[in-house]
Amino acid sequence: MDRRFSIAALVAFLFFITGTAAAQTLKIGAPQPMTGPDAPFGDKFQKAYSMAVEEINAAGGVNGKQIEVIIEDHQAKNPLAATVAERLIQQREVLILTGGRASGQAVEIASIAQRLKTPYLVDHPSADIITAKGFEWVFRNNPTGSIYPQAFNKFISEAPGAMPKSAAVIYDNTVFGKTIANSAMTFLKSKNVNIVNDEAYPVNTLDFKPIMTKVRGNNPDYVLMVAVATTDAILMTRHAKEMGLKPRAFVGFGGGFGVEDFAKQLGPLSENVFSSAAWSGNPNDPKVKAFYEKFNKKYGIYPKEHEVEGYAAIYIIADAMKRAKLTGDVAKDRDAIRRALLKTDMETVFGKVKFGNYKGPLGDPYTNQNVNSPEHSVLAQWRKGKLLNVYPKANAETDVVFPDPASKK
Question: In what residue span(s) does the Leucine-binding protein domain sit (predicted)?
C-alpha cells in the first residue's frame, strides 16, 4: 500500500513539475519550410530564432518566464502551412505565430490566425494582400512587395542617366512575384518607360531560354527579374547572360537574388547584377555591425535579410509579451499580446518598429503594417562574390557600377 502510494505520489509530483515548467514557458509558433526546396530558408530562420531566444532567456526571459519557438515544417506547401498553423494554435497552444517564409504560405497562415484569434507577426513574406485584408490579428514588420522596388525607383530617378527608356519584366506567377512586378511596372509606366516584355513563369521553371529569346529580340535597357525561388533566380540569370543579353542593368527582386548560392552557382555571371531588397543592412550602423559579428561568431556565416528579420521578430514578440500582463489563460493572453503589439514603438537591428494603418504605394489599405517599412528598402549589387549595398548613399558600402560594363546599350 505504502509502495503504491509512493509511486502514485511520485507520478503526481513529476506531472506537477512538468506541467509547471510547461506553464512557465511562453510558446511562439513558427511554420517554416524545414524540408523541401525552401529548406535553406527554414534553416536561416531557425538559426535566427534560436539566437534571439537564447539571448532573451539568458537575460531573464519575459517577466521571469522563458520563451520557446516551436517550428513546424510546411515543406513550402501552401495548404500544409494552414494545417501546421492550426495545429500550433489548437494543439500546441502557442500564444503567437511568426514565420511563414513565402507569401503564399503566409496568406494561408494569416487566415487561420484571424479565424482562431491568434496574433501573427509576419517576419518575411511580403505580398501586400497579407496586411491589406483588414485582419486585426495580423501584423507585419518587413516591407510589403510593392515597397521592395523603392530603392531601385529612387536610384533610377536620382542617379544621372539611370532612367531607362525600355524595360523587360520577368516574374514568377506567385502572389509575391505578381505584387513586385506590378509595383515596378506601375512606377516605370508613370515615368513613360516602355515595358517591352511582361513575362510570367511558373515557379521552378527548367528552361528560361524561350522567354530570354523574346527579351533579346526587344533589346531592353533594363531586365527586371523577380524570383521567390533561388533556383529560378540562378537559372534565369544564367540563361539571360549565356544567350547574350546585354542590357544596361540586370535587376533582381526577391530572396533568390540575395543569397550566397546566387553568386556561388553563377560565378562571374553574377557580377554587377543588382538586388533590390527589403533590407540589406546599414554597414555604417554600429548595431548592425555588432549583430553581424555576433551571428558570424555563433554560426560561422554573416546574416542577411532573412536572419535579421527572424531575429528581430522574436525581440518584437518578447517586447509585446512583457507589456501584455499575461495571466495564463491562453485566449486572453493572445488578445493581450495583440493589444500590446498595437502599441509597439521600438527599435531592432532590422530598424524602427511601429504598427499602423496606411495606404501602400499601389493604394492598398494596410492594417498593422510597420509604418517604417519604406525606410528599409536597399539596392545592392553583386561584386566579386559579395553582395554590397550601393544605394541609397547613406547605406552604401561601395560605388555603384552602372551601366554594366558588358552592356551594348
Answer: 25-367
Q: Answer yes or no: are the C-beta atoms of 305 and 278 closer than 8 Å.
A: yes
- Rounded to whole angstroms, the Cα distance separating 187 from 207 reads 29
**Nine-digit cell at 104?**
503564399
Is 3.40.50.620 the CATH classification of the domain at 147-277+377-395? no
The CATH architecture of the domain made up of 26-144+283-374 is: 3-Layer(aba) Sandwich (3.40)
Beta bridge partners of 222: 167, 249
Where are the domains positioned within the chain?
Answer: 26-144+283-374, 147-277+377-395
Spatial contact of 395 and 282, defined as CB atoms under 8 Å apart: yes
Q: Which of 185, 191, 246, 249 is nearest to 219 (CA)?
A: 246
Angle of CA points 127, 133, 136, to nearest 5°? 115
Please give the order of strands across the beta sheet that includes 66-73: 66-73, 25-32, 96-98, 120-122, 138-140, 365-370, 355-359
| Topology agreement, domain 26-144+283-374 and domain 147-277+377-395 | yes
User: Averaged in consecutive runs of 10 residues, what is the pLDDT profile of the chain (409 residues)?
Assistant: 36 35 80 93 96 98 97 97 98 98 95 98 95 97 91 95 97 93 96 98 96 98 95 97 97 89 95 88 82 95 91 98 97 98 96 95 94 87 94 90 87
Contacts of 159 (CB under 8 A, 6+ apart): 391, 400, 402
Q: How far is CA 96 from CA 29, 89, 330, 332, in A?
A: 6, 8, 10, 12
- The grid cell for 20 is 509547471
DSSP sequence for 297-345: HHHSS---HHHHHHHHHHHHHHHHHHHS---S-HHHHHHHHHHHHHT--
Query: Using CA atoms, how far apart are residues 232 and 184, in angstroms rounded to an integer?
Result: 19
- Cα(153)–Cα(141) distance, rounded to whole angstroms? 21
Alpha carbon distance 259, 277 (integer Å): 11
